[in-house]
Amino acid sequence: MTPTPTPTPTRRLTAVAALVLAGSLLAACGDDDEVAAVSGEAAPVTEAANTTDTTQAEEPAGELEVADAWARTSPAVATAGAAYLDITNGTEADDVLLSASVDAAVAARVELHETTAVEDDGDAGMGEGMGGEEGEGTTDTSMAGAPMMQMQPVEDIPVPAGETVSLEPGGLHIMMLDLVEPLEVGTTIELTLTFEQAGDVVVTAEVRDMAP
Amino acid sequence: MVPPRARRGAPVAIFLLFVAGFVTACGSGGTGEPASLAATTTLAGVVRAPLLEVADVSLPEAASGTPMAMRADDGELLVVYFGYTSCPDVCPMTMSDLRVAIEDLPDGLAEKVTVAMATVDPERDQPETLAGYLGHFFDRTAALRTEDPAELATAARAFGVQYEVEDHEPGDATYDVGHSAITYVIDDTGTVRVEWPFGFESEHMTTDLTTLLTRPEIR
Ligand SMILES: [Cu+2]
Hints:
By secondary structure, chain A is of the alpha+beta class. Chain A has two domains: 9-52; 64-120 and 145-207, PCu(A)C copper chaperone (Immunoglobulin-like), CATH 2.60.40. Chain A has helices at 9-29, 34-39, 47-51, and strands spanning 64-73, 80-89, 95-101, 107-118, 148-153, 157-159, 164-167, 172-179, 188-195, 199-207. In chain A, strands 1, 2, 3, 4, 5, 6, 7, 8, 9 and 10 form a ten-stranded mixed beta sheet that branches. The N and C termini of chain A lie far apart (41 Å). Chain B has a single domain, classed as Glutaredoxin (3-Layer(aba) Sandwich), CATH 3.40.30. Chain B is built from five helices and ten strands. In chain B, the strands form three sheets. In chain B, strands 1-10-9-4-5-6 form a six-stranded mixed beta sheet. Chain B has a two-stranded antiparallel ribbon with strand order 2-3. In chain B, strand 4 (77-83), helix 2 (90-103) and strand 5 (113-119) form a beta-alpha-beta unit. In chain B, helix 2 (90-103) crosses helix 5 (202-214). Chain B is globular, with a radius of gyration of 17 Å. Classes of the chains: A alpha+beta, B alpha+beta. At the A-B interface, helix 1, strand 2, strand 4, strand 5 and strand 8 of A face helix 1, strand 1, helix 2, helix 3 and helix 4 of B. Strand 5 of chain A pairs antiparallel with strand 8 of chain B, so a sheet runs across the interface. The structure holds copper (II) ion. Copper (II) ion binds next to strand 8 of chain A.
């Protein structure tokens, strides 16, 4: 069996740290993007503010803003779709995204999801191990494969005061299940996000076939 | 041009070479001198040592059932991904980035790249589904599918790909499938020349493909 580059925990930490470093370097030389998501104030996405319910009276400064919402489905089998957005909590209180919903005409169920890279849990072998896992005297345990990308529902998504949480492909996302019709590129859907503090925030997500 | 950004969901198996790619991209996208990865001798993605040989691995072409070896045509590249078409989050991202990467290739090179997707979900991915999915993204495609779990497992194992179909009732079409989301670039000898982790930037895919197609001597 050919050895696979199995990242050791240490190496992975290094890689993650390096990625963070790369991220900050990029932030330093990047232009729009991040900034647009954070600046919020005059952004065209502030319909969020209009639909926030009663609680803002006591908010001292800033508000919770949702920007850059978009959604995508698989082009072939459109039973599920994912929506992505950035949530910036400009308030001084921590908030939590509790749930999301869409009109029943769009999807029957909406869940908060996170895709994470999971190592072999011993249950799923290379190629799932349907039957012939121990052929040819080799044990699969000697060769860990690449981590699996796996989706899992999450209870809620914390948005600490002053921070931006990005829902993006391969990470946190809003999962629309049992789509009534395939999402069509170029159309929009309305998402209602329910926050612990900010209440309901309605955003319009553009259906796209690639990330904005 | 969208500036590259570190994606939160990028998997942990990212190597320093990969990071080096990001940093170089920063230089080329920012104010520094125009750096071109294509002009360098290194690849932006992950290069295994020793290189992985997969010429002996094959999977059936979905419609015909004819075995297809994991080897590109002469002077070309075969890009292989194990995934499934119902995948709402991970696969469309890789596929759309790869589409952009191929569209951005210098003239004449896109015709030398074939994208093969091996489905890890043959239950839902019927041959025409898989072919249609690939055709949505690419011109030159190979839809690979087997209903024999052992055959799929053998091919996946050769790459180090893992997958796990969520338990589901017969007829339930909403199950999820976890899978390694690495993209493999194979040359005409059946050698995996470079692999791209999930979240790899399309610009770097373009430069790697360009490097491999125009400077095949690079090892
Ligand atoms: Cu999901």
